[in-house]
Amino acid sequence: MYQSFLIKYAEIAIKGKNRHLFEDALVSQICHALREVDGEFNVRKEQGRIYVEAESEFDYEETVEALQHVFGIVGICPVIMAQDEGFDALAQMVVAHVKEVYGDKSLTFKVDARRARKNYPMTSMEINAELGGRILDACPNMSVDVHDPDVMVHVEIRNQINIYSSEIPGPGGMPVGTNGKAMLLLSGGIDSPVAGYMIAKRGVSIDATYFHAPPYTSERAKQKVVDLAKLVAKYSGPINLHIVNFTDIQLAIYEKCPHDELTIIMRRYMMKIAEHFAKENKCLGLITGESIGQVASQTMQSLAATNEVCTLPVYRPLIGFDKQEIIEISEKIDTYETSILPFEDCCTIFVAKHPVTKPNLNVIKHSEQKLNDVIDELMKTAIETTEVIRVE
Ligand code: ATP
Ligand code: MG
Questions:
Q1: What was the pLDDT predicted at 116?
Q2: What structural domains does the chain harbor?
């Protein structure tokens, strides 16, 4: 029934002189998202609007789904576009549209006509009244409600005529690529994919670093993280996933440092290595899925100790969220089912029974000195042997 979509965007419309940069980024993200969809599309910018027009047969459901993954889109309106061939032709199209979509349902409606071309021979009010009358004649079960209609029939008179009456919600946010890049510490848990999604939603491109500890962690645990990166990439675009072999560093920490400090010390080395790759890839910050008090390594004291090794800002979008709130987002973005697959994480293997909850930075630094002989070499090897996978 539809051949085109009108794309609504809100936040990027307020960016003043930069507006065209944001619109161009949105167009380019839409084109990217539609590459995977069956069909040929023309995406164009016109008079402060973006239109997606199918130029061949296309899969409607797939197209809508792809558009629902593009940050910056607030609404997706399936639209009928036509040339202006006089008011009678317009009225016929509007009536046909309403009949086809709403049939003989008992619904209330309102016509909302807008003229971008003020030389049209009727005013908006006259168009509303006339079209309303014709819809009532053609659809006896429908009635007018100007305050709270079930269906809002939009008629826009521009260079062409647009007719639409539904708006499918988009994901909101800002087009990816308009706000630099950040490095996500991506584990196989529930939290970090959600954290990546939330920062990408603000227009930030994402790279990721995952620490594994073979043979203590399996190939399947690694594949799970690759799969999670793929799901995040549906929103964020391509992710360069750095897979760091962390085994020897973890073993050294386990051997030389007090066991109740293992997780904090390990986190500090993860941050250092992630920051190394962040800087190498022009990232402007790090992202983690941490949330205050979630576990011993995320008390305020632990977060301070972890943070201390970083020179880049660390973005923690989930910092004030409860687990249940995080789970709701992970279900919405479809990462939950993958996150809960029961493969061991490198952190869970070397955890202490009673980890410190209020680490003292001086004590931690003192413990880390026991690694002085080996750590530089181990870090160097971990960095040099890191595997990078481009996840699309
Ligand atoms: P969960 O959903 O079980 O909390 P999690 O991945 O958040 O999973 P935490 O132990 O809470 O696990 O880790 C806190 C944060 O540290 C993660 O959100 C992630 O950003 C980072 N992190 C933890 N383990 C790893 C890892 N193996 N590789 C990369 N980042 C990690
Ligand atoms: Mg967590």
A1: 85
A2: 2-167 (3.30.2130.30), 179-389 (3.40.50.620)
